[in-house]
Design goal:
Length: about 280
């Protein structure tokens, strides 16, 4: 019998863990927090409100505080990520963004959810390593969880274009969500949700792509990768390499080297004339 939780950590009082389980289970129990889980592999059998359901890989489970639930796992290993969200965290998001006139904790749809977007955001939240990106990932998760109406009028689209123009002029440093919120006049919650709707990716990732594109132009001009990183405000060389590779699929050094070699390979001799 195996039921093993690992990588248990806390992000701003929101606790996360990865669990591997088979031939075991959790007896009937409850939590004080909201529980969101993303099933990465295997099958989990859950009991909730007198009903038994099966959670397949790629699906999400959601439990409200104090809900009684239980789980069992068969011989095939099941691996899942769980996020424990304090009630005050969701109440704060709702109050700060005027999503409800009340101040009580929301009641979420419970049980097994086929919700690819929410599944993605649960994974993304547990993979963040900076305060800004953690906050952005959590607000995206909340927006997906609440399934609030689209905030997509003409005024908002104008604000998003304004932010895009601003980010194109600020490539030599990191920008913050607070800064973008102040410029656009949108709360961070609506800023992140609206930006992703209009552009396709969240604002911090968009700005990072702009900086990497600029780095690529510098490397094309044979600027050394270390100098390119410094010019764009990447004072941590490993962070620059990791960010460049994530977008380009290759390290800055290898990109510059291969580009230089290809120029030699396909260069046309000066005395050669094309007729």
């Amino acid at each position: 019998m195996i039921l093993k939780s690992s990588e248990w950590f806390s992000l701003n009082q929101i606790e996360c863990c990865t669990t591997l389980a088979y031939q075991d289970g959790y007896p009937k129990h409850s939590h004080q927090e909201y529980i969101l889980s993303a099933n990465l592999s295997g099958v989990e059998r859950i009991w909730l409100n007198g009903k038994t359901s099966f959670v397949q890989s790629g699906q999400v489970t959601c439990y409200n505080p104090e809900s009684i639930q239980s789980s069992t796992f068969a011989e095939q290993p099941t691996r899942f990520i769980s996020i424990h969200i304090p009630q005050h965290a969701l109440i704060d998001v709702i109050r700060e963004n005027h999503l409800s006139s009340g101040h009580s904790a929301p009641v979420l749809t419970e049980g097994v959810l086929h919700h690819p977007e929410l599944f993605q955001y649960i994974q993304s939240f547990t993979q963040q390593h900076s305060t800004e990106h953690t906050q952005q990932a959590f607000l995206l998760l909340c927006a997906s969880l609440f399934q609030s109406p689209q905030f997509a009028d003409h005024q908002t689209s104008h604000a998003i274009r304004l932010l895009q123009d601003y980010m194109r002029t600020e490539l030599t440093r990191k920008i913050s969500l607070d800064e973008l919120s102040q410029i656009s006049g949108l709360s961070k919650y609506y800023l992140i949700r609206s930006f992703k709707k209009f552009v396709g990716i969240p604002p911090l990732q968009y700005h990072m792509q702009l900086r990497i594109h600029c780095a690529r132009d510098l490397l094309r001009q044979r600027v050394h990768s270390l100098d390119a990183a410094t010019a764009l405000g990447f004072y941590d060389q490993s962070h620059f390499i990791q960010s460049f590779k994530k977008i380009m699929g290759i390290t800055p050094h290898d990109y510059a080297q291969q580009l230089h070699l290809s120029r030699k390979k396909f260069s046309i001799p000066r005395n050669h004339h094309v007729h």
